[in-house]
Amino acid sequence: MSDLRIVVPASAGFCWGVERALEIARDAVATCRAPVDTLGPLIHNPGVIAELEAEGIGRVEDLAAKTEGTVIIRSHGIPIEVKDVLAESDIQVVDATCTFVKAAQDKAARLRAEGYKVVILGEPDHPEVLGIRSHAGPDAVVLEEPEEIPEWLDGRRVGLVVQTTQSQARLAALAAALTPRVSELRVFNTICSATERRQRETVELAEEVDLVIVVGGRDSGNTARLVQLSSAVQPRSFHVEGAEEVQREWLEGVDSVGITAGASTPPAQIEAVVARVRELSS
Questions:
Q1: What's the pTM?
Q2: Deepest in the core among 36, 217, 229, 258, taking most CB within 10 A?
């Protein structure tokens, strides 16, 4: 295995939205009222969250526990009702919501205002989806699979928006299933361009190598999607949060390894996995 080839796609790791959120958070420590806390994890990467805590950026899960200082709205966004609570408080608010997420929220609100029944393709309990749904109205429905389409949508005017980290294939499948059942279907493809590029490069990587390692947080939706896409092409695909999880036996009989990462994974974590693979293959 000394001649092992390691391939890392150009898109692996931090996206622009995550880099922006981290910059906003770090600026807030220097410029905003203390204590500075994020409402929920800023991004889905335990290592990065630990670094932020060491830099003085705390985290609260419930606004009831926050009575002073500054709150940073996470990159995934928050529901409208939570924004309303913050607006009525004395807490300083810093908004680090990803612009692609905001676009999905705006599209959902637009569809609702124009009289469409809004369908959101996404994970029902994901914080991003909860925020989008609050803009889509109380009768909005969140679906993950075409089989979940409720009968009450039949014959309705339906508008479809998408969690930004979903795949084009899943969007196409749901749109195709809705089309013959509804009177009108309006689709806003709100998958972010960075996600699309990362997913495409992951599939290409899986076609090229003997083993794929995807680096990212267990709670990261976009990382999980990369694992799914890779596994469909290359069964020898593994998801790790850190380099210590890489196992020597994975590399047996392997001539090439692809290492990619979710949008919340910093370069240092990717480099650590590359180093670990080189160490185990030597």
A1: 0.90
A2: 258
- Give the count of beta carbons closer than 10 Å to the beta carbon of residue 33: 12
Q: What is the DSSP letter of 117?
A: E
The model's pLDDT over 234-267, given as tens digits with 9 standing for 90+, comes to 999 999 999 999 999 999 999 999 999 999 999 9
Q: Is CATH 3.90.960.10 the right assignment for the domain spanning 5-13+194-281?
A: no
CB 89 within 8 A of CB 64: no
Clarify whether 244 is annotated catalytic: no
Check: CATH 3.40.1010.20 for 100-191? yes
- The DSSP secondary-structure symbol of 280 reads H
- As given in the structure block, the two tokens for residue 29 are 């420590």
Note the pLDDT tens digit of each residue in 169-219: 999 999 999 999 999 999 999 999 999 999 999 999 999 999 999 999 998
Catalytic residue among 23, 114, 123, 128: 128
Q: How far is CA 69 from CA 37, 111, 149, 269, in A?
A: 8, 36, 44, 31
Pinpoint the alpha helices (H) of 2-147. Answer: 16-31, 46-54, 80-87, 99-113, 127-136
